[in-house]
Every structure is written in C-alpha cells, then in structure tokens.
C-alpha cells in the first residue's frame, strides 16, 4: 500500500502581475513584429519560461551589443541601467521596456532623492539584475548594502542628507532590520516603509509563514537565481521546517519524505503553476496524495502594457507593413 501524504498548497503562489506582464510583452511582441525578438537577460528568473519563449521566437542575450542594429529589443522585468538604454538607442534598437512597474517606482524614488542632493543607499543583493539596473538609474552613485552588519561600516558624505531604497524582492523581515539599523545610525535618513516592498513578495512570504505551521516539510518551486524564491525557502528553514528549493519535479528526492505526512508546496513569483502541478503528479506516482488549498490574499493587480504593443493603431500599421 502506498504511503499517504497530504499536500497543502500556499495561496497566493507563483506568477505575480509583473511577471505575467513581462511574459505577455514578449509573446505579443513576437506576434506583432514576428520572430526573432531579442530580450536582454532572462525576461524573468525561470528557465522553463525562458525556454518556452525561446521556442516561440525570442532570442536571449546578455548585452545589447549582441543584438543586430535596428532589431526589436525587450528589457527584462528586472530593469536596466541608463547606460544600457543609451547604448540601445545608439544601435538603433526598437525598445520595448518590460521592467516591472514596482521596480520602476524604486528607480523614480531614488532619482527624486538624488535630484535634491541626497546620497542614496540601496538595500539589495550585489550582482542581482534588479540591483544593477537600479544602481545604474540613480545619478551620483549609490551605496549598496545587504545586511544590518553592512550599516555599521557604512561611510557617507553627509549623515543629514541621506535616503534609502530597496530591492523589491527582499525578505520583509530582513529589510525591516536593516532599515531599523539605518535609522538608528542616521536618524534623519529618508525612505519608504517596508510596506513599499513588492506586494507579491509580501503576500507569498506571509503565505509561507502560515503554511509551515501546518506541515513537516516545505517545497518551493523556483529557480536557484530567483531572489524571492530563495527567501521563501529560507523562511521555512528559519522557522525550523526542512525546506527545499526545486526547479521542477525532477529535483525531488525520495529521502526527503521519510517520516513525512504533510508537505507544504508553494512557488516563487516567476514560477508557472504547471510546475507546481508537475510536483503533485510526481508525488502521486509514489504516494497516495490528498491536496488541500489554503485560503490567502486574493491578488487582483494588473499592470498596463507598454504602448508599443497596446496601441491598436500602431499595431495595425505594423501588421499592414506601413
């Protein structure tokens, strides 16, 4: 007789509005302009999504210098630095910007502070595409920190003329601690509250907090280079539940399920639901699975598409060859 396992699904999980928008931008661009459409960096951090779009006619590159002059070019949801925009314009690329509007909001906030001569501190992870894009959008230079410990050694020009912004996909708890440490060292620092962190990041983290109280093991479907997916896994581990980040069902290890009867399952903001269902199907091959859905926050956020693929007149002209 097969072992019995209850799978409890977090809610919300998986795609956020920014990811859905970015994917739709690529799909529509291919439909309107025809393949190939070039995308700088992974449109979102998920190889399954990237491969699917590649099959439809997207070509992913690391730098705009790899793109033929005049080609249709999409910037990823993570955003890009100003020098990337200038280089693209110089090459005559036809740009469609898929930057998540919440990331663009951080850019504008940092620019506003820099315009009134505040030195800007960015809370984020070095090397992450969103961080590189944000640092390259704020004039005058940015100080990057990733932990409360970094604050202690931080040297600034004027402690009374400071501001901070944050990477959108960080842990709310980690950000809260860093912000508190910044305010303790620099009482006059200006910046947003933790509530300004991406709504999807907060909702998925809160769903995991509720989920891990009811399970013996947590599975997070997401890419290894996905910041928000890693934080979901970390949250489970910090609470004391064995937690694993898996790209898809092929990464499941039967040893994890010894003496386990209740499995929590969620997905990062760039992981498609089909991968979650694939994990359930794989578990069903070896165990008797019952599925329970937790109730959570209902997300109804919808972001507008760029005018290059939403302006009906321009689209009709393009399809007609005008």
How would the blueprint of this fold be written?
Blueprint: E1 3-9, H1 17-33, E2 37-40, H2 47-56, E3 58-61, E4 72-75, H3 82-90, E5 94-97, H4 101-115, E6 119-123, H5 129-135, E7 142-145, H6 148-152, E8 162-166, H7 172-185, H8 199-212, E9 217-221, H9 227-239, E10 243-246, E11 262-267, H10 273-286, E12 287-293, H11 307-310, H12 312-319
Parallel strand pairs: 1-11, 1-12, 2-3, 2-4, 4-5, 6-7, 6-8, 9-10, 9-11
Textual characterization of the structure:
The protein is α/β, with parallel strands linked by helices and 322 residues long. Helix content is 40%, strand content 18%. It has 3 domains: 108 residues, Cobalt-precorrin-4 Transmethylase, domain 1 (3-Layer(aba) Sandwich); 84 residues, 3-Layer(aba) Sandwich (Rossmann fold); 85 residues, 4-hydroxy-3-methylbut-2-enyl diphosphate reductase, catalytic domain (Cobalt-precorrin-4 Transmethylase, domain 1, 3-Layer(aba) Sandwich), CATH 3.40.1010.20. Strands 10-9-11-1-12 form a 5-stranded parallel β-sheet, with helices on both faces. It has a 4-stranded parallel β-sheet with strand order 3-2-4-5.
């Amino acid at each position: 007789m097969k072992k019995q396992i209850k799978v409890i699904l977090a809610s919300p999980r998986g795609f956020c509005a920014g990811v859905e928008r970015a994917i739709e931008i690529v799909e529509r661009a291919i439909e309107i302009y025809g393949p190939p459409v070039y995308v700088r960096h992974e449109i979102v951090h998920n190889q399954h999504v990237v491969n699917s779009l590649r099959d439809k006619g997207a070509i992913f590159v690391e730098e705009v210098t790899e793109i033929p002059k005049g080609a249709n070019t999409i910037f990823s949801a993570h955003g890009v630095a100003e020098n990337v925009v200038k280089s693209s314009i110089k090459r005559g690329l036809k740009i469609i910007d898929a930057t998540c509007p919440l990331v663009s909001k951080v850019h504008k906030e940092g620019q506003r502070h820099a315009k009134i001569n505040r030195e800007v501190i960015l809370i984020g992870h070095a090397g992450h595409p969103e961080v590189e894009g944000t640092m390259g959008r704020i004039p005058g230079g940015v100080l990057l920190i990733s932990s409360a410990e970094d604050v202690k050694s931080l040297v600034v020009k004027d402690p009374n003329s400071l501001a901070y912004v944050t990477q959108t996909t960080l842990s709310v708890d980690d950000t809260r601690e860093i912000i508190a440490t910044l305010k303790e060292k620099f009482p006059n620092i200006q910046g947003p509250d933790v509530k300004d962190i991406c709504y999807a990041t907060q909702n998925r983290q809160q769903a995991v907090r509720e989920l891990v109280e009811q399970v013996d093991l947590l599975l997070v479907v997401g890419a290894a280079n996905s910041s928000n997916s890693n934080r979901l896994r970390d949250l489970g581990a910090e609470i004391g539940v064995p937690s694993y980040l898996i790209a898809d069902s092929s990464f499941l290890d039967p040893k994890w399920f010894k003496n386990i009867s209740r499995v929590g399952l969620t997905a990062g903001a760039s992981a498609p639901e089909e991968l979650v269902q694939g994990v359930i199907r794989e578990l069903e091959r070896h165990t008797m699975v019952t599925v329970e859905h937790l109730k959570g926050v209902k997300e109804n956020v919808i972001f507008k598409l760029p005018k290059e693929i939403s302006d009906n007149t321009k689209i009709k002209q393009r399809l007609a060859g005008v």
